[in-house]
Sequence to fold (875 residues):
Amino acid sequence: MFVSPIREPLITGNKDYHQITEDIARPTEGRPQIGWIIGMGIAQVALLLGVFMMLWTIWYGIGTWNLNRTVGWGWDITNFVWWIGIGHAGTLISAILLLFRQKWRTGVNRAAEAMTIFAVLCAALYPGIHMGRLWVPFYIFPYPNTRAVWPNFDSPLLWDVFAISTYFTVSLLFWYIGLIPDLATLRDRAKSTLRKNIYKALSFGWRGSAKQWQRFESISLVLAGLATPLVLSVHTIVSFDFATSVIPGWHTTIFPPYFVAGAIFSGFAMVLTLMIITRKILHLEDYITIGHIESMNKVIILTGSIVGIAYTTELFVAWYSGNIYEQYAFLNRAMGPYAWAYWIMMTCNVFSPQLMWIKKLRRNLVATFILSIIINIGMWFERFVIIVTSLHRDFLPSSWTYYVPTFVEVGIFIGTLGIFFTLFLLFARTFPVIAIAEVKSIWRTSSNQAIEKFQQQEEAEAAAEKETATV
Amino acid sequence: MNMSEHFQFTSGQKRNAFILMGIGALTLVIGIIMALSGNHTMQEKIWTGILTNNMFFLGLSLAGLFFIAVNYIGYGGWYVTVKRIPEAMSMFIPYMGVGMLVILIGLWAHWHHIYHWAAEGIADPNSPNYDRLIAGKVSYLNKPFFTIRIIAYFAIWTFFAYSLRRLSIQEDQLGGVSQYNKSKVLAAVFLIFFGITSSSMSWDFVMSIDSHWYSTLFGWYTFSTLFVSGIAAIILFTIFLKSKGYLPQVNQEHLHDLGKFMFAFSVFWAYLWFSQFMLIWYANIGEATAYFKARLDHYPFLFYMILVINFVVPFFALMTRNSKRQMGTLATIAVIVLIGHWFDYFLMIIPGATGNEASFGIFEIGLTIGYAGLFLFVVLKELTKTSLVAAKHPFFKESLEHHT
Fold:
């Protein structure tokens, strides 16, 4: 298999197979670093605050939120959609980039898939709390019951239950099956008996025989096939929650693909935020190279521009429609009481990613890190703008209102951030954050040694050609 | 130079292309004579036939350009062995510019009434033609601005198509990576432009026919139609050239990947079709459902047929690995997909442009054959102009050793 030497190496630092195992497995084996402990401390405080605020909501009732008759969805659904969106990068990397044979995915797929699962967990909390009776969440599932109460099958909210639970199951299976060979590596390296036994149980008796690898490959392919439509379907159905309605600003046909693009956009921003820190703290710069960062920044420009085109299309078609309610909804977004949120959204999501056309910035860690945070903020505001500004001035001007969240709603959001980072920090300490086996699989074609070898091969051929020409 | 690297456009093939063009020209002439002798239906058929075929073949040529551009900036390596085919297809863009010029001339000369917004006095409250909704759109939908937009689209698309083509041919002589690097920049700029114009051209040419109706997804939906039919055309040219003994470097692996593209984008097309239809059906707002009501009530057969042959057929036929690696199966499905997407444009255009009683018959078939003859002639002619193999492309060797 030949790889053109104009491609950048994806593994640098003259690594061999053993060194790769050493570098990636080491962070799970020593004592935690001080940075990890501080991070975990902060995440725990946030998590506890969130749990407290959730209990507060349950104790005093949903009235502790500032939702009202006009604005029935506020921070809760904004956060729900934001978290679901963040999860999409993991699935895109593991399924779609696999189909497109993007080898750089091996550097970031494990962490991105983990992030997907944690983000979906955070998202799933919101409908549960929002329904106000957290102790009867099973009401949302259709099952034969003595009450003869069925959920409404016509409602996209129910489709969401199916879409997200399928998505979560497949993502979890995909992630865990990919982990099995690496967990076996950790088991074989374990020094203490307890550690050995834990990883032994987790790795399901993996021995690395040819038959096991063959089955591993087949199941990976099947799951990738299943995960590919899920990349599109989940956020499509989330967008149906809005677009099947007749609310101006919600009912628009571009929502499904535009939500998917936005989800991938925000997901990659979160992957960049996490990976820039992780590679630094765990010293993984040779596996998550500047080339990886640049590739992810290119996905950011692409999806950011798609989102930009979608915003513009919506705006144009609202005018073009001749429908005064549509026109007002968009005028109100850009110039109404929530104009500040709209312009934050436009600045963060449409204008700022365009800076990444500059190659220097794409390959600059500080710039990338700052931009990734900006996009995370911008994509949160996108959902806020869609949800709250479309609702707050409805068809009856006497019901118009201005919604601000209470400390309870803010606290729950901070709490989900705490849950997310707690899980991610635990993951970084217990599982290899890079897929060891997959990185090794590209060593022969994409390590710096391999690229150098192909370079020499090209030069030798060119020299031979020259010689024949002179003869 | 190896003979198999240079396509010979034989006189027999040229003759066949001319026969196809002749059929088209004859159909058109007979149609014009019938229209001039007072056959109003035929007059409508001529104009909608020209627009439908313009859109369809413009779609194929733009898809060729888009395919090259997207592979440049995506660092695609596998496609290099077939690269000259989409390149040659993109050379057809100016011809469709001429085709659209005919529509523009007809618009200014009042020879057709495809675009209701261009009717006299549409924005004048005292005119019997006054339409309140369209009056709100005239700052976008008016003849001068429409003309400017269309000329700009074709000028800029043609510029990118010719520039990328020129760099690609230069590369054959010079080698190195300088042409490649320049192409990457051009490709990126083109994609930005195309991202906007692929939507706006579909609003201009097609969505504005149903002047009251609007759908934000429409632009992306027509893009998916354009791209999947372009891939089908690339597949057919590849298989044609291979059957004549050219392109020995193209093996099952490359066909497999092209087949995957056709499969994936057929599914993607169905996804967008469903998204647009389902949301309009579910919300059930009269001004939006009117579009589908006209099609479901008066063209139910076409409406469902398009879904079957553009989605169900490729989905099941291309599901297995083997079907994507066999030239016969792949070519059959590509032909079906092309026919399906031609009817897709037909159904987008016909009800708004000619009403509920339009028919499909010998005239449409004849005209489309003529267009196909011209398209084949131009693309095959372009293929003779340079080597079929982009041998100095930096990823050429990767493409040779490609393995799915």
Notes: DSSP finds 15 helices and no strands in chain B. Residues 11-385+396-400 of chain B form one domain. The mean pLDDT of chain B is 92. Chain B touches chain A through 48 residues (CB under 8 Å).
